[in-house]
Fold:
Amino acid sequence: MRISGIKNLIKLVEESEIAELEVSRFGTRVRIRKVVDQSNAGGKADAPPLASLEPKIDKEKEVPTRNANHVPIKSPMVGTFYRAAAPDAPPYVEINDIVKQGQIVCIVEAMKLMNEIESEVSGRVVEILVKNKTPVEYGEVLFHLEPI
Amino acid sequence: MNEILDAEVIQKGLTTSFLGKKIYAFGSLQSTQETAKRLAKNGAPEGSVVIAEQQTAGRGRFGRTWHSPKEGLWVSLILHPKIPSQKVPFLSLLTALSVTEAIRRTTSLLPTIKWPNDVLINGKKVCGILPDLETRENNSNLVIIGIGLNVNQSDFPLDLEETSTSLHLELDRPISKTLLLQELLLRFEENYIIFLKEETMELLEKIRGFSYFIGKRVTVDLKEKVLEGEVIDLDEEGRLVLRLDSGLIQRVVAGEARLVR
Structure:
């Protein structure tokens, strides 16, 4: 589905009384949900109010195989996720890399404190779920490892 | 004349209960932060302090270098706070507070805290703070706090001249690094004990009083977008509370905040 098509769908939902719309086409599924209750907008808002209008795109073919044995590495705090120690340095880990227990896999930064996240198990990186330099929440899964 | 830091002399006048009971003093190190990390992994206890006359590869965040000649104070503190990891970032602010208090008590200068971890005098940076954390299981954290304080430098390289200052430049005289370090360790320990008792409101009151940003207009670069608004407060976790132009209140935990001039 093209971006322009998704934009048209968002416009359609915005201008209508529809609260939620899901369209499936050529293996791509787009769900657009409108948040009607904005009564809290003047108060505490940790996310921009329009974020919920952004289309959530699930491309099924891009979801890697995951099984129950895979071990998640979660963020121990709220902050910004960094895959490398410095802007010009290579990422700590890539997909399919083998990491050892105690090896640093990424950095989460909050209030300029650099938290080097170590893997608690030895394993193969099967999934990296967060984009470099983006915010992460407490407990958010950053990687999936296949233990070895 | 350059004052040589001596662990025995420092400890003689030190009134702390645990911070600085063990001091590792070096003439020259690549980085106190890296040495402290190694010492901590070999069992250096809570409150151990690493100092160096000069660093040959002093570092800032993201592999940036930190200019560290022998006129400055280059310190790393080793801590093992038994608290949940998500509370540890507050130590950035706590360190900035302790440095600010130590300078205010040993000189006539009035430094301010630029959230979250810079100490400024007359708008120029006098101290950089680099806290590193390694989270272990069972809330056992290893925290190494690097403190780089420009004390007796009488000049800076061209690329730093505009943005950096030293206590010497501001006072127009050199000051004792030993006395300053003793006061810094004492202030830090006092604040750290309050922090471990989870009485952070008391610390926040002091930090607010020294804040460079509160009441001012800033931009915050969050990498994926830039926020602009007025800083109205620090919240209970030390996050910057921003009122955006839309009226929305946004709490900021990471990102680069700059004054809008």
